[in-house]
Structure formats: C-alpha cells, structure tokens
Hints:
This protein has 696 residues and is an alpha+beta fold. The radius of gyration is 31 Å and the shape is globular. 38% of the residues are buried.
Amino acid sequence: MSTSPLSDLSLSGSGAISCPALLGLIAQAVPVMLAYYVREPSGLRCSFANQRYADFMGRKIDAVVGASAQDTLDAQTWQQIQPAVQRALAGEAVQHVCKQADANGRARVLEFSLRPDLGTRTGPAAAAGLLVLVNDITERQAAEQAVRQSEERMRKFAEATEEGLVFHRDSCIVDANDSLLRMTGYQLAEVLGRPIFDFIQPEYRDLAHEYTRREREYPYELAMRHKDGHSIPIEAVGRTMPYAEDALRVVVVRDITARKQAQERTRFLSMHDPLTQLPNRSHLMHKLAQWTGGEQRRSRAALLFIDLDHFKTVNESLGHEAGDQLLCEMARRLQEGVKATDFVARVGGDQFVVLLTKRRGRPAVAAMTDSLIERMQAVFVIDGTRLSVSPSIGISIFPDDGFSPDELLRRADAAMQQAKEGGRGTRLFYTPDMEGQPAEVLQQEHLLREAVFQEALELHYQPQVQLASGRLMGFEALVRWRHPERGLVGPDEFIPLAESRGLISPIGRWVLREACRQLKAWQDEGLAMVPVAVNLSAIEFRQRDVAGEIARVLHETGLAPQYLEVEITETTLMQHAEHTHATLQALRDMGVAVTVDDFGTGYSSLTYLKRYPLDKLKVDRSFVVDTPADGDNVAIVTAIVQLARSLQLQSVAEGVQTTEQFKLLERLGCELAQGFGIARPMDAQHTREWLRMQAP
C-alpha cells in the first residue's frame, strides 16, 4: 500500500477518499498555510501547497509547486529552519518558531510544524517527504505569553489542524480527526456511518440542518453532545467540496467553552457590583424600567435611597479593606431584611437602593424602612473594632412621586439629602419642595453658559501608552471648567448640569473642534503623530448629526480621520439601535475609530458589541484601582480583556497608578493603558512640553 502525505494527520476513514483529494479538502477547509515537499537527491521540492501558503509567499500556487524549499522560503528563514528540517527528514516530528517577512514586507512570527512522511521506510533517511504546516502566530503570541504560559494556552493558539475536523456525505460521517474524537470522547469506529446530527444537541439540530441544506459557509454557534452526555458549546463552519461525481462536506469544529464562560462572567459582572455581588446601578435602572413600564404600573412600589453616614471616617481610620467589609455586611443585612420579591442594589460608593414592591400604603413602607435602619445600625466587629453605622434614607413612592425610573431615583435621592441635613440616621419621604436649590442651580447654569459661549473651558490631555513597549499610542481629551469661584472643575461635577440644561451639545462641539485643532497643531510641529479621543454623551449621540459634524471639523482643521477616536458609553450603544448602528458605520467608513468607554459598569448586550463596528473596549478605572490585591477585580479585568480579544477589539485600561498594575495588565494581555501612574492629564502647554521630552 502506498504512503500518503496525510498519514501523520491521523485522518483515517472508510478508505473511500483518495489521499490527494483529502489533502485538497483539508487545504481549503483549514485556515492554516500547508505544503508538502518531496525528498529528492537535489533536496526538497514542493509537490503540493494550499492557497494560503502561496499567498503568504507572494506567489501563485503554480510558482510554488515544483520549486525547491530554498526558493519558496527567504534565505534567512531557510537558515533558521534548516536544522529542524534535517531532524524531520530523519524521522522526527518537529515544531519550530521563527520570524519571516510576508509578501508585503511585514514581520510575522510563524510556527512551522514539520511532519515526516515515513511510509513503510526505516532508517536515518527514511522520510520520503515532509508535510509542512505553517501557522501565523504573530497576534496570538503576545496573548499566549500574557494570559497563560502553559500547554493549554499553546493548544488554544496552535495550528488549525488541532481543531476538530469531520467529513460527511449526505449527513453521514465518513471521517473525523483525532482532535474531534478527543473533544467528543468517541472512538472513530463509533462515529463512522452515523448521521452527524446525532451528535448535535436537539435544540440546535434544526439550525444545523438549515446550514447544511443551504450549504452555508460561515461560522455559527451550537452545542455538541459528548459521549458522557454533557454538552459542549462549539463554533462550526462547514464547506461543501466536490469529490468525483459526489459532494463531500467538511466541518471545522472549535470548542468555545472558555469563550462562553468568559461571556457569562462578563455578562454577570456587567449587571452586578463586584464587591457586594449586588445588582449595580445599570441593573437597577433596567429593573425599574421593567416595573414602571410593564403590567406592574397598576401596582404601588417604594424606592429607598440609602447613604451610610460617616462612611468616609471608616475608610480613613481603619483602611479601605475595613470599608469594603462594612459594605459587604450592609449588603447582607439589606438582603436579609427584605422579601424575596424586593430588589436590593448598590449604586455606588456607600449608597444602596431598595425597591419594595409589595407594600400597601406609607405606614407599611415606613415600618419596613425603620426595620432596615435598626438592622443596619446593629453593632458588628472588624479586626477587633466595634462599629455601628447609621443610614440616611430617602423614599419615593410609585406612582405618586414619579412614573419614570429617573424621576423616582432622583426624588428618593433628594429626600435622602434632606435626611442627612436633618441630622442623619433617619428616613424621609419625598415632598416636592425637596428637589434642588433653585437659586443655586440657576446661578451655576448661568456661569456654565457663560463659560461655554465665552470659551472659558479647557482641554487637558492624558496619554495612552502601549503596555508591551511603553510607546505613546494616543491621548484622551478631557474637558475642564475654570470656575470663577471654585477653580478648575472636572467633568463629573458639571456635565450632568450641562445635560439637564441643554448645554451638552455646544460643549461637545467645542471639545471636538478644539481637540482636532490642537492635535493638528502639534503634528505640524512634528509632535504627536497619534490619535486623540473625545467623549460623546448619549444625548449628543442621539440629538446631533455626529458623523456629519465630525466630517466637517476634520475638513476644517485638516486633521486626518485616523487621528480621531470617539468614546461612547455602553448606555449609548443600547439606545436607538438603528440610529446608533448607522452613525457608527458612518464613522467606520470615514476612518474614525470608536471606543466603548467605562466598559463593565453598564448594561450592554454582547450581541450589540458583536454587531456594531467598534475598535476598542475601555476597562473602567473602578476595576483597575484595587488590582492586583482584589481578586474579583482581577477576574473582571481578565474577562473584559478576553472578551475584547474574542471580538477582535483592542483593550484599554484606565486608572493605572502603580507598577504592579502595569505589569498585571501586561500579563493579562491588555494592550493599552492610561492613568496617573503613566501621566496625569495636562493642559495643552504642559502636554507640548511632555511630548518634546518624549521625542528621541
């Protein structure tokens, strides 16, 4: 019996498929560079190559087939792998990693897998030829080193032949490789001749039938059944290949268990506070929207806004760890003190919100709130120190005090502020006279309006660097208000006022124009050949022709589109889906990059992330600040980085302050970072000086 160049692939089947045809099938189905070299007295000659192999060499297949190994590879690469080739020709399966320039001159890291075709020969010169599989691991190598330096990571990013391969004719399996058999727990004899759909979980069989019937050739997700009965989430892509007078379909199967686990973890973290495991603000707003907009509109409910009195003193005197323990204890007491039908959330810092859904009348709500106050005030001990913390609670009633989630939350907050001012450790129901200090609000609005139209705002610029090299990769433009009484004020303090008073659009327009103008000026000086990122609020994104305005500003300032990035929040993605998608696509077509800011703090859908044309995910600073000491936050950052990689997006961490955080993020595979540990936000003049210091 003759020897096949595929003998080392362990693709044994019914014998009905000839080896050359099977090689052709694999060559077209498997996303890896593949070639077969015949051993001749003069050296190695290529007798087979797939299209990917020829494309990488910058040649047509006809020019590769028949050429010597030295002619198909550049001299440097040949010199690097020649020892490995000699070992392979001696009968040893060899893997070798080296660097080579592709047809376009770009440096790539390649993994060569050299497998000898031994046939029935023996001895030191037994190999009749070599099967060469080349995997481009340039992008995966960094992730491999950062996330896992073990065999598991190497396997994940190994050559494509390690993925499951199954061949079927008219849905009956005719062959499968070892990887698929290991994945499913079956022996080859147990699957040959059986319908492929027998191994697919019932709920996915109709989908698989449809893909097969229509001969669709793009990836889709489903679940496969292991021999022991458990379900394996997989990504499959099939291709129908002509064979003689028949047709054969090859399916490439990838186990995506890790990806699904990461997605589920990220989905959970997007809706919950990592410290207390309570629902977060976004989850609360979603819950309130369901309540106020559904059948529950006929029911009454109470919203309790809770703020711990003098919590700052605990942090300052006992440390943040003690403060975290206190918050977890308060979360536990709140959960134990309400009914299963109620809803408890942590909305930030030392603030909690409780939704009471089945209480009749204010007296019942008051009694329940008093019970919670008593429970929360009970003494507990942290590291030998007895603590007792009182809460200030504001209460709003649905529908008496509002019909929307924003109204109910805002009015409960106003009542809580009055409770604090009235002596703390008490509760107050909302009354209309509690919201705001009208005169003060009007005064601040007047000052802000003057600042906007008299251009009394400033932009500060914070560098973003590449974690692997420390090289400058961009800036984030951060707006500041030079307040006539308070000095320099950050956006967290005046942007909400701007949004509520219709000033956010003129502020956004000014920030966009000024950032583009300033960056172009630096570029004209030979500095800052990197992009600048500007933030857009959900209101701006919804109300303005963002794409049109950006196009005009870029034209007027002369800044090239690739030097501008737009940062939007998860909330923006979820609103007005069609308009959002159209705007993002227009930006992508223009060449402007889009970053999802503060990722992990919102309530975004992973479906939306996959659907929209995005470029980066930005890990919120709240998850970075306590790393690496906080294991939960490390898990969150890891999940977000893995999700970004799965979606082929760059990951950016903000709030980096320490060398330990920098090194951790680098190990996890995060690509970019910004924070005080790298550089503080600087005004234009100091940024220019900083750039000049960075110049070689």
